[in-house]
Design brief:
Length: about 500
Amino acid sequence: MTRESRANARAASGRQRAASRQTLEERYIAGVPARIMRPRLVFLSCLGALLAFGLLMVYSASSVEALKEYGSSTYFLERQAFFILVGLAVMVAISRVPLYVMRSPAMWWIWATTLVVLMLVLVVGTDAGGARRWIDIGFTQLQPSEFAKSVVIVTAAKIMYEFYEARSLDVQSFLVLLLACVGLPLIFIMLEPDFGSCVIIAATVFVMCYFAGFSYKLIALLVVIGGLAAAVLVLSSGYRSARILTASDPWADPYGDGYQAVLAIMAFASGGLTGRGIGNSTMKYNYLPEAHNDYILAIIGEELGFVGTLIFFAVVAGLVISAFHIASQSPTLQGRLIASGSAFLIALQFFINSLGILGVTPMTGKTLPFISYGGSSMIASLVLMGLVLRVSLESSAATVHDVRRESIELVDESTAGEVRVRSGSRAGFSVVDGSPRPTPSAPPSRRGRDVRTSARGGSGGYGRVNLGSDPADRLRSSGPRVSAARMGEDRPRGGAPRGRNRNGR
């Protein structure tokens, strides 16, 4: 092997090692434009703050009940931390799945599997509170309707993408697929019954239809049909009608149907402006049922007060707004629909829980996202966040300039040729190496003053070229010194000095 071939091989191996050393920061941060990185950082910061705050509040709201029932005040805290770790792992896994995989035919198999699991809940599910929504898997219980939310969002986005952007579906096929995608899961969820999840899923798909570009006539028709269906479902069920009456006047039956609503209002009232302080709630002492679950916002209001609750709402708003910002930057319709649908679902579930606890709307049993205790709710919410993060990662698509920039390679060897060092210096210049040396005896210059001073300047510093104090001397290249007054005598008005050439003669 020749010397040139060995040099080329070393250069190629060096480039490969440099590419392999590309860190996560270089891949996901350094090369991402600020307009895309800014909402992503806000999104991740708000998400991390909510998860940490949720752990704190679950421990504060459940420590008394956990110590009484399980003998350990950290029982629910440890389980919630485990659910968060599992959810974060799932979120990272979802964020690494490209969007083109989510619009492949394999998505229909995932949707069909979800539908089968929803059917199994009605057969082998666990009853609790008059509903059959959970499947016991040993160490915990899973609620399939929570995971159906993300599956319906991704499948609906796939159908809308194929109709509006890929143009691979006609109108009839589009409507049939969309109704099957949304309608069949809602039917099985309604049979559990889980009216709250049905409302959240239906409203989310409706918003996705609006963002996709449905005509206003069709949107108005969907609003009318949805409103009539909701009214029929509410009036046909006794317990749903009772919840509406309780929300309208919880004090009418403070020890019956309105018991939890009354205690939640009392918790907010006792919190005042700044709250009692973290851990100082009184309602968690077996007064307020489900204090660490559905009604955890009442404990937040009691311990943090009005100001702390507003700060908590601001963090949630930052998460949702940044997710919508990520959706607006997606280069594809599928990405915009997935991110906006996930953000709207989290926001809607948050408002349903908050308004239900405040007594504005009927309580539906929906948890507070990222805050309430529960494995299914936590993991399902983090799945939605993984979808938003995936959309953000694909928003920084490479442009023509990025591709051209990546094709540019650095040259390992100089192209200027061999370096040659001058053996001497031109007249009037000298090379100073910076080392101390004695002052040479310099002959007087033609201008009558020393051009070079000592290398050390006499005071330990390096010398400078003495240009003189007269500006006229510095402007003249040669010849005897001429004072400024003499120059003024020889200079005519508005012209050069009389009778003198370039050398001053």
